[in-house]
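Sequence and structure are kept together here, with a separate record for every protein. An example record follows, reproduced without changes.
>
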Amino acid sequence: MSRTVSFPGTTAVVTGGASGIGKGMARAFLAAGCHVVIADLDEAALAATAAELCVLGVPTDVTDPDSVAALAERAVAEYGEVHVLCNNAGVGPFGAVSAMSLADWRWVLDVNLYGAIHGLHAFLPVLERNPDWGHVVNTSSLSVMVTPPHTAAYVASKAALLGISEVLAAELRAAGSRVGVTALIPGTVRTNIRDSLRTRRPAANGQATGESGLYQVDLAESGRDFRWLDPDEVGAMVLDAIRADQLYLITHPEFADQIAQRYQQIAAGLPLPS
Protein backbone atom coordinates (compact mmCIF):
# COMPACT_ATOMS: atom_id res chain seq x y z
CA MET A 1 0.00 0.00 0.00
CA SER A 2 1.35 3.42 -0.91
CA ARG A 3 2.24 5.85 1.84
CA THR A 4 3.75 9.27 2.32
CA VAL A 5 6.31 9.60 5.10
CA SER A 6 6.38 12.87 7.03
CA PHE A 7 8.57 12.99 10.12
CA PRO A 8 7.68 16.27 11.89
CA GLY A 9 5.59 15.68 14.99
CA THR A 10 5.91 11.89 14.91
CA THR A 11 7.71 9.74 17.48
CA ALA A 12 10.75 7.53 17.00
CA VAL A 13 11.93 5.03 19.62
CA VAL A 14 15.55 3.89 19.46
CA THR A 15 16.92 1.07 21.63
CA GLY A 16 20.63 1.20 22.34
CA GLY A 17 20.12 4.91 21.83
CA ALA A 18 22.65 6.26 24.32
CA SER A 19 25.63 5.88 22.01
CA GLY A 20 26.91 4.77 18.63
CA ILE A 21 24.51 4.12 15.77
CA GLY A 22 21.54 4.55 18.09
CA LYS A 23 22.64 8.03 19.05
CA GLY A 24 23.27 8.84 15.39
CA MET A 25 19.72 7.79 14.52
CA ALA A 26 18.33 9.79 17.43
CA ARG A 27 20.11 12.91 16.16
CA ALA A 28 18.74 12.35 12.66
CA PHE A 29 15.17 11.91 13.85
CA LEU A 30 15.46 15.03 15.99
CA ALA A 31 16.74 17.03 13.03
CA ALA A 32 13.75 15.79 11.02
CA GLY A 33 11.33 17.15 13.63
CA CYS A 34 10.49 13.95 15.50
CA HIS A 35 9.90 13.38 19.15
CA VAL A 36 12.62 10.91 20.15
CA VAL A 37 12.67 8.31 22.89
CA ILE A 38 15.98 6.60 23.55
CA ALA A 39 16.30 3.39 25.55
CA ASP A 40 19.44 1.84 26.99
CA LEU A 41 20.66 -0.47 29.72
CA ASP A 42 23.57 1.85 30.59
CA GLU A 43 21.71 4.33 32.76
CA ALA A 44 24.61 6.77 33.15
CA ALA A 45 25.16 7.00 29.39
CA LEU A 46 21.39 7.18 28.84
CA ALA A 47 21.00 10.11 31.23
CA ALA A 48 23.93 11.95 29.65
CA THR A 49 22.68 11.49 26.09
CA ALA A 50 19.08 12.33 26.98
CA ALA A 51 20.28 15.56 28.59
CA GLU A 52 22.58 16.37 25.66
CA LEU A 53 19.88 15.86 23.04
CA CYS A 54 16.94 17.01 25.20
CA VAL A 55 15.01 13.80 24.56
CA LEU A 56 13.20 11.29 26.73
CA GLY A 57 15.47 8.53 28.02
CA VAL A 58 13.91 5.34 29.36
CA PRO A 59 16.12 2.76 31.13
CA THR A 60 15.37 -0.51 29.34
CA ASP A 61 16.67 -4.07 29.42
CA VAL A 62 15.75 -5.43 25.99
CA THR A 63 16.26 -9.01 27.20
CA ASP A 64 13.23 -8.51 29.48
CA PRO A 65 9.91 -8.40 27.60
CA ASP A 66 8.23 -6.59 30.48
CA SER A 67 10.89 -3.86 30.35
CA VAL A 68 10.34 -3.40 26.60
CA ALA A 69 6.55 -3.39 27.07
CA ALA A 70 7.01 -0.65 29.69
CA LEU A 71 9.09 1.31 27.16
CA ALA A 72 6.24 1.15 24.64
CA GLU A 73 3.72 2.21 27.27
CA ARG A 74 5.90 5.16 28.32
CA ALA A 75 6.41 6.34 24.74
CA VAL A 76 2.69 6.22 23.98
CA ALA A 77 1.80 7.87 27.29
CA GLU A 78 4.24 10.69 26.55
CA TYR A 79 3.50 11.31 22.87
CA GLY A 80 0.30 9.44 22.01
CA GLU A 81 1.80 7.37 19.20
CA VAL A 82 4.97 5.83 17.81
CA HIS A 83 5.76 5.86 14.09
CA VAL A 84 9.28 4.42 14.10
CA LEU A 85 10.85 1.62 16.12
CA CYS A 86 14.60 1.10 15.81
CA ASN A 87 15.63 -2.26 17.23
CA ASN A 88 19.26 -1.26 17.61
CA ALA A 89 20.48 -2.46 21.02
CA GLY A 90 23.26 -4.98 20.58
CA VAL A 91 26.46 -6.52 21.90
CA GLY A 92 29.42 -7.67 19.86
CA PRO A 93 32.11 -9.57 21.76
CA PHE A 94 34.26 -12.15 19.99
CA GLY A 95 34.61 -15.83 20.88
CA ALA A 96 35.55 -19.07 19.18
CA VAL A 97 32.71 -21.58 18.84
CA SER A 98 34.83 -24.13 20.71
CA ALA A 99 35.45 -21.74 23.61
CA MET A 100 32.03 -20.21 24.23
CA SER A 101 29.82 -21.47 27.03
CA LEU A 102 26.10 -21.97 26.59
CA ALA A 103 25.62 -18.89 28.75
CA ASP A 104 27.73 -16.90 26.27
CA TRP A 105 25.47 -17.96 23.41
CA ARG A 106 22.33 -17.19 25.39
CA TRP A 107 23.50 -13.73 26.39
CA VAL A 108 24.38 -12.60 22.86
CA LEU A 109 21.16 -14.04 21.43
CA ASP A 110 19.08 -12.62 24.29
CA VAL A 111 20.32 -9.10 23.57
CA ASN A 112 20.71 -9.06 19.80
CA LEU A 113 17.87 -11.35 18.73
CA TYR A 114 15.33 -11.59 21.52
CA GLY A 115 15.78 -7.90 22.26
CA ALA A 116 14.47 -7.17 18.76
CA ILE A 117 11.74 -9.81 19.06
CA HIS A 118 10.57 -8.17 22.27
CA GLY A 119 10.57 -4.82 20.47
CA LEU A 120 8.42 -6.16 17.64
CA HIS A 121 6.02 -7.82 20.06
CA ALA A 122 5.52 -4.62 22.06
CA PHE A 123 5.58 -2.02 19.30
CA LEU A 124 4.16 -3.57 16.13
CA PRO A 125 0.53 -3.18 17.30
CA VAL A 126 1.32 0.45 18.14
CA LEU A 127 2.77 1.11 14.68
CA GLU A 128 -0.20 -0.61 13.02
CA ARG A 129 -2.61 1.80 14.75
CA ASN A 130 -1.22 4.76 12.81
CA PRO A 131 -3.56 5.74 9.96
CA ASP A 132 -0.74 7.04 7.77
CA TRP A 133 2.53 5.12 8.11
CA GLY A 134 4.94 3.36 10.43
CA HIS A 135 8.36 1.78 10.16
CA VAL A 136 10.61 -0.78 11.81
CA VAL A 137 14.40 -0.54 11.55
CA ASN A 138 16.28 -3.67 12.61
CA THR A 139 20.04 -3.32 12.99
CA SER A 140 21.65 -6.39 11.41
CA SER A 141 25.31 -6.42 10.30
CA LEU A 142 27.52 -6.69 7.26
CA SER A 143 29.23 -9.56 9.08
CA VAL A 144 26.26 -11.68 8.00
CA MET A 145 27.48 -11.33 4.42
CA VAL A 146 31.24 -11.25 5.07
CA THR A 147 31.76 -13.53 8.07
CA PRO A 148 34.88 -12.87 10.17
CA PRO A 149 36.21 -15.58 12.52
CA HIS A 150 35.24 -15.70 16.20
CA THR A 151 31.90 -13.97 15.61
CA ALA A 152 29.55 -16.96 15.45
CA ALA A 153 27.12 -15.84 18.15
CA TYR A 154 27.02 -12.29 16.82
CA VAL A 155 26.58 -13.41 13.20
CA ALA A 156 23.91 -15.93 14.20
CA SER A 157 21.90 -13.23 15.96
CA LYS A 158 22.26 -10.71 13.15
CA ALA A 159 21.49 -13.26 10.42
CA ALA A 160 18.32 -14.23 12.26
CA LEU A 161 17.34 -10.57 12.54
CA LEU A 162 17.88 -10.09 8.82
CA GLY A 163 15.63 -13.07 8.11
CA ILE A 164 12.95 -11.77 10.46
CA SER A 165 13.08 -8.42 8.67
CA GLU A 166 12.57 -10.06 5.29
CA VAL A 167 9.66 -12.19 6.48
CA LEU A 168 8.01 -9.30 8.34
CA ALA A 169 8.28 -7.05 5.29
CA ALA A 170 6.62 -9.70 3.12
CA GLU A 171 3.85 -10.27 5.65
CA LEU A 172 3.12 -6.56 5.99
CA ARG A 173 3.03 -6.10 2.21
CA ALA A 174 0.64 -9.03 1.84
CA ALA A 175 -1.63 -7.54 4.51
CA GLY A 176 -1.68 -4.13 2.79
CA SER A 177 -0.06 -2.52 5.81
CA ARG A 178 1.44 0.97 5.76
CA VAL A 179 4.19 -0.22 8.11
CA GLY A 180 7.51 -0.71 6.36
CA VAL A 181 10.71 -2.50 7.36
CA THR A 182 14.37 -1.69 6.89
CA ALA A 183 17.20 -4.07 7.69
CA LEU A 184 20.12 -1.83 8.52
CA ILE A 185 23.29 -3.70 7.51
CA PRO A 186 26.19 -1.58 8.76
CA GLY A 187 29.86 -2.16 8.19
CA THR A 188 32.51 -0.44 10.26
CA VAL A 189 31.00 2.43 12.27
CA ARG A 190 32.57 4.32 15.16
CA THR A 191 30.64 2.93 18.13
CA ASN A 192 31.46 1.57 21.58
CA ILE A 193 30.27 -1.98 20.81
CA ARG A 194 33.87 -3.04 21.51
CA ASP A 195 33.06 -2.38 25.18
CA SER A 196 29.79 -4.32 25.25
CA LEU A 197 30.99 -6.89 27.80
CA ARG A 198 30.66 -4.10 30.38
CA THR A 199 26.87 -4.50 30.20
CA ARG A 200 26.90 -8.21 30.95
CA ARG A 201 25.66 -8.92 34.42
CA PRO A 202 28.05 -10.96 36.60
CA ALA A 203 25.78 -13.98 36.83
CA ALA A 204 23.99 -13.89 33.46
CA ASN A 205 22.07 -17.15 33.00
CA GLY A 206 23.65 -18.54 36.15
CA GLN A 207 27.22 -18.45 34.82
CA ALA A 208 29.90 -16.02 35.94
CA THR A 209 31.55 -13.93 33.23
CA GLY A 210 34.90 -15.22 34.47
CA GLU A 211 33.99 -18.60 32.92
CA SER A 212 33.17 -16.99 29.60
CA GLY A 213 34.85 -17.67 26.28
CA LEU A 214 33.99 -14.18 25.02
CA TYR A 215 36.47 -11.36 24.68
CA GLN A 216 36.69 -7.85 23.24
CA VAL A 217 39.09 -6.62 20.58
CA ASP A 218 40.16 -3.18 19.46
CA LEU A 219 37.93 -2.94 16.40
CA ALA A 220 39.56 0.28 15.25
CA GLU A 221 42.94 -1.45 15.18
CA SER A 222 41.72 -4.71 13.65
CA GLY A 223 39.69 -2.82 11.04
CA ARG A 224 42.20 -0.09 10.27
CA ASP A 225 42.10 -0.89 6.55
CA PHE A 226 38.34 -0.28 6.33
CA ARG A 227 36.36 2.92 5.89
CA TRP A 228 34.86 3.97 9.22
CA LEU A 229 31.59 5.90 9.25
CA ASP A 230 30.42 8.34 11.86
CA PRO A 231 27.10 7.32 13.50
CA ASP A 232 25.48 10.54 12.28
CA GLU A 233 26.17 9.47 8.69
CA VAL A 234 24.35 6.21 9.33
CA GLY A 235 21.46 8.09 10.96
CA ALA A 236 20.98 10.17 7.81
CA MET A 237 21.01 6.99 5.69
CA VAL A 238 18.31 5.46 7.88
CA LEU A 239 15.95 8.41 7.37
CA ASP A 240 16.42 8.18 3.61
CA ALA A 241 15.72 4.43 3.72
CA ILE A 242 12.51 4.97 5.68
CA ARG A 243 11.32 7.59 3.20
CA ALA A 244 12.02 5.20 0.31
CA ASP A 245 10.57 2.17 2.16
CA GLN A 246 13.91 0.47 1.47
CA LEU A 247 14.23 -3.06 2.84
CA TYR A 248 18.03 -3.40 2.71
CA LEU A 249 20.33 -0.59 3.80
CA ILE A 250 23.99 -1.56 3.35
CA THR A 251 26.25 1.25 4.55
CA HIS A 252 29.43 0.14 2.74
CA PRO A 253 28.92 -0.46 -1.00
CA GLU A 254 32.64 -1.24 -1.36
CA PHE A 255 31.85 -4.74 -0.07
CA ALA A 256 29.65 -5.46 -3.11
CA ASP A 257 32.17 -7.85 -4.68
CA GLN A 258 32.55 -9.88 -1.48
CA ILE A 259 28.80 -10.06 -1.06
CA ALA A 260 28.38 -11.18 -4.67
CA GLN A 261 31.08 -13.81 -4.18
CA ARG A 262 29.19 -15.23 -1.21
CA TYR A 263 26.04 -15.68 -3.26
CA GLN A 264 28.01 -17.19 -6.13
CA GLN A 265 29.36 -19.77 -3.69
CA ILE A 266 25.82 -20.50 -2.52
CA ALA A 267 24.63 -20.84 -6.11
CA ALA A 268 27.48 -23.26 -6.77
CA GLY A 269 25.89 -25.62 -4.28
CA LEU A 270 22.78 -26.01 -6.42
CA PRO A 271 22.36 -29.38 -8.18
CA LEU A 272 23.68 -29.41 -11.72
CA PRO A 273 20.98 -29.61 -14.39
CA SER A 274 20.44 -33.14 -15.61
Notes: Confidence is low (pLDDT under 50) at residues 204-209.
